[in-house]
Structures are given as structure tokens and as C-alpha cells.
Amino acid sequence: MKTVQSILRQPIFFSQKLWLRSYSTKYQEAPSSWKAMLNLKHIYEHSGEIHQNCVNRNMRAVAETLPTIKSLYEEHTAVRNQLTPYVSEKNKITGLIKSSKDGEHRSFLVSEAKNIKVKIDSIEKLSSDIQKKLYHYCLSLPNSTLPSVPLGSEDNAVCVASIGEQKNLNEKNFYIKDHLELAGDAIDLLSASETSGHAFCYIKGEVAELEMSLINYAIDFAKSRGWSLVIPPSIVRSDVALACGFQPRDEQGEQIYQLENQYESNSPKQCLVGTAEISLASLGFRQTFHDLKEKRVVGVSRSYRREAGARGRDTKGLYRLHEFTKVELFSWTHPSQSSRVFDDIIKLQIDFIHSLGLSARVLNMPTQELGAPAAQKYDIEAWMPSRAKFGEISSTSNCLDYQARRLLTRYKNSKDSGFVHTLNGTAAAIPRLVIALLESHQQPDGSVVLPQCLIPYLKKEKLFVPNEKEVSE
């Protein structure tokens, strides 16, 4: 089945405003010079399939807009059909005016043409108003879903690969510490809670060194596979974030930190990125790639998540933070190459995690776990001993041309042209990698043995080595 995005061809120009959405489907206008391209006829004719896709993704509020979309489409078509006789009559009168030599008759024709223009302007105004509403709802629709994606909730995720061997630290007969116990005051949540609030953290000492080493190692690892380094901004315009498929609100509440403008302005507000994917995707804004096979970049930035989850064991310590560092992979590809690039990203992530000596699993995530832009998503979860279960440390998504159509990112070569496919993947979500590394490689004396790949970066083989006084005590 063709995707909704793969057949969008009709250009619709909004000179001042682009209608964008939130999951609540309430109107949200973002000043912009966007040019959206949507095939309204396809959406109308395939509304049943699109409705089911929304239901499968647990986007019921959006699914409920399909009847409205159909109604608006029919209304818009009827209004546009009203224009046909008036435009035909106006063209006819315009021709008569040009050929008329009788001044009085010419004046009559000019008056008639003005009257018809008033009617045409009125109909076009009505058509424009309907069109804005119609495009608002159509832009709310998620990407189509690839056939290989399982239906349902997270419980239906399918394990497609395993990485490493799961370590059973209990067999070694020593007390298993969590990452907070191992790091001590090197992970300082208390001070950060007093200065910044819940789910912020000061990272100090050897843990800070570990974080910087993981960042550099992840970048070097990606570069060795042909990815080019980019340091992107952490602030983007809110309409750009929306075009990438990231919502300032979802049905659970605020997700993105939005910045208030100091002065009144018609320009869109700015926001802090929740992932470098947003600012990396924006690197292709209004761009046309020539002779594209694929273009790959790896970016590192701070990431900001307003909703860090409820307090409890599953959010303890570094697992969910409002601010953290993330190394992100992003690729623009020719549509024929996106499946292969998806596999390449997964292979890179598996090799990277294996090199760190971690036990992990690769999951094909179900429909309800897909964000609006993703047609397919794999998550990788690492074993975290203190949690006694796996925790997500990376993901990879194939967004087909969903983001490209909204960011106007095209390709053109001697054989064909169109919108690129975009893919993104996590190279290293630093805090969760720190959890998995510290807990998986801990020793009975409280030290942590580093994997061989990190020793050149930290210039040591262990962290938290007890000094002689501590050992004697």
C-alpha cells in the first residue's frame, strides 16, 4: 500500500501562516513562510485506511477528525465548483471588453466584470477559510506504518536480536549496587534539585570523565563508519519542531520547553530540542540534494525533556532527566535506500553496544510506540542490574518522506527527483549508558572495570578504585 506521504503532489501555499497540530487537534497557528504539499483527494478516498492507522497508533483524537476531513473536503470541492461558471463568465466578458469598440457597451461590460469579481472574491475567501481548516487536520495525520510493524502496545514488541550475554551478578555472591551507590557524590541530584528542580543533575569527577569519554567514543565510532560530525543548535523555532513531528503538547501534557519571546513578534516562538534529531533534520530545511544516495551526520547536543516521568524506581537517578547529553545519528537518503540505511544504523548501534560489553536486546516496536513521523522503529534495551530488567538506551526510526515533505527537503538527479527519506538513530544516550556501564561492570570492592574501548579515552582501567585506607577499614 502506498503511503499517504508518497503520493502528496498538490502544492498549497500559505504565505503567512502554516497550520500545525498538537495531539489534542486544537488549532495552533505558527507564523511561517511554509509551502505544504498534500494530496487531499487521496486522503479523502483512503480515509478508512488512514483512520485505522491512527487507531492502531493509539491516536484516537486524530482518528476522530477523519469525518471532519471528509466533510471539509466535500464542502471545499463544492465551493470550488461554484467558481467555475463565474470564472468562465468573467473570462468571456474580459474578451468582449478587449474587442468592444462601443464606449457605453464597454462601460457596461466593465461594471459586469466588477460585479462578478466581487462574487469570485467572496467564494475564494470562503474556499480559503475551509482550506485552512482542512489542511490543519490533514497535517495532524501520522505517517503510514510499514507492514513489518507489530500491532498494539509495548507488550507486543518483538525481539529481533540479542547483544552479548546477560551477566548474573548474583552468582558472584556480592551485594549489587545501583549506579547512585557506586558513584556516590559524583552524581549529585540533591544540589541540582535545589538549584534547578526535580530530575536535574550535577555530574562530577570520574562520572563526568566517563560521560565525556562516551561522547567522544560514540562520535569516533560513527565517524569510522562514514558519518560526518555536526554540532547543531539546541534551540529551534517551534514550527520547525512541529514539522519534524515533535509536539509542544501531547495528551499527557507539556513535552517541549518553549521559550517566551521577550518582545512581541510575529515570528514563531523558539523551543529547546528534546533530541538533536530536530535540529539535524532542520539542516535539510528547504534544501535540494543533488545525486543523492545518502548523506549521514552524527550530532551531539544537550537535550531537554519537560516531562521526566513520575518519581519511583523506574525513574531513579539518571534514568529520566529533564536535561542530558545525547549523540544522534541522522541520514537523508534516496527513497530506494532508506531500508538499507535503517539496517546500517541498527548494525552500528549493535556493534557499539557490544564493544561496551553490555547485554542488550533489539526490539521491533509496535504501532502504539511509534511517534507521528516514524513508519518503523526499533528500540535497543540494555540490561540494568539494579532494575533487574532491560531499559531503553537507543532507538532507530525510518520516517520515509514524512519530515522531508514538511521541511521541503528534496533530491534531484539525472534519473528522478522528489522528497528524500529521513532516518534517525541514537548513537549514545549518555545517562542511561552510564547506568548500564557502571552497574554491569561493577566489582565486589565497589570499583568498576572499564571496557577496553574506553581505556584510551579515560586513561585508566577502573573507576572508583578504593584507596588503601578504605581497603584496610
TrEMBL record:
E.C. number(s) listed in UniProt: 6.1.1.11
Keywords: Aminoacyl-tRNA synthetase, ATP-binding, Ligase, Nucleotide-binding
GO MF term (any one): ATP binding
Sequence ranges assigned to domain Aminoacyl-transfer RNA synthetases class-II family profile in this UniProt record: 296-451
Gene Ontology biological process terms in this record: mitochondrial seryl-tRNA aminoacylation
GO CC annotation: mitochondrion
Marked site (Important for serine binding) residue numbers: 426
Short name of one Pfam family: tRNA-synt_2b
Annotated binding of L-serine, by residue: 275, 305, 328, 424
Positions of ATP binding: 305-307, 392-395
Statement: the UniProt record of this protein carries the keyword Nucleotide-binding: yes
The protein's enzyme class: ligase
NCBIfam families: serS
Stated name of the protein: serine--tRNA ligase
Record organism: Schizosaccharomyces cryophilus (strain OY26 / ATCC MYA-4695 / CBS 11777 / NBRC 106824 / NRRL Y48691)
